Amino acid sequence: MILRCIAVDDEPLALEKIADYAGKVPFLSFEAKFGNPLDAMNYINNHAIDLIFLDIQMDQLNGIQFLEALKTKQSIILTTAFDHYALKGYELDVSDYLLKPFSFERFVKSVNKVYNQRNIPFELQQKLTERKEEEKKFIFLKSGIKIEKIDINEITYIEGMKEYLGIHTQQSRTMILMSFHKLEEILPPKRFVRIHKSFSVALSKIQCIKNNHVCINDVQLPIGNTFRNAFYSMIECWKSDGGKF
User: Alpha-carbon distance 167 to 10, whole Å?
Assistant: First the structure.
């Protein structure tokens, strides 16, 4: 089995290194490299790709946003100089995490892992992923002097208010002292999307999108410039897969 792969990184030397390493592995076919993640997403939408080497720290669209917008079935190997992204990457079901600078031996170990994973029947992979998503139905968050149990399915959107977050549901709002980054490490990654520096929304609760605003329960939340391209790309991918609001 040949794995068709691409690399996405805004550092030209990093792209050259991955292309060089990939060229030495018999079961890899290196198709393209991209310094612009939006160009990479367009390429993925029009070409059959099995594996993506993805940097995290990029200007236009960081790797985490790229992953959250991606709705196709590629394997992902994260490449970054920052080890604190490892937990978030694994929550997004990446296959492996390469910490820069990485050796050829470490690269081979990583792609061998992907090769072995790709030999698992797709139906089994899908069942394992669905089971993992089903396991997490609620979270416990500290609110003042209490620890609140919050049903994840009830969350409509999350609002940032300085150092606090407001967790909105159909019936209530719970205030917690936590950053967006920390909460995103707890929540199921494919069910929530950041649309603004102050807002994250539950995909299943979106009623409509109009005038660069997301409508949820008669509340209109703005889509920020920083998050706009990733959000609309993700929505297009979702619609092409038959998603509905």
Answer: 35
pLDDT of residue 245: 44
* Three-class DSSP category at 147: strand
| Separation of alpha carbons 220 and 211, rounded Å | 10
- In single-letter form, the type of residue at position 41 comes to M
Which long-range CB contacts under 8 A does 140-149 form with residues at least 24 apart? Answer: 141/167, 141/174, 141/176, 141/178, 142/176, 142/177, 143/174, 143/175, 143/176, 144/175, 148/174, 148/176
Max CA-CA distance within the chain?
A: 58
pLDDT digits (tens, 9 = 90+) for 21-61: 999 998 899 999 999 888 998 899 889 999 999 988 777 67
DSSP summary character for residue 2: P
Please give the model's pTM, rounded to 2 decimal places. Answer: 0.50
Q: Within 10 Å of residue 208's Cβ, how many Cβ atoms?
A: 10
| 3-class secondary structure, 168 | strand
Report the b/e string of 160-172 with b at 16+ CB within 10 A.
Answer: beeeebbbbbeee
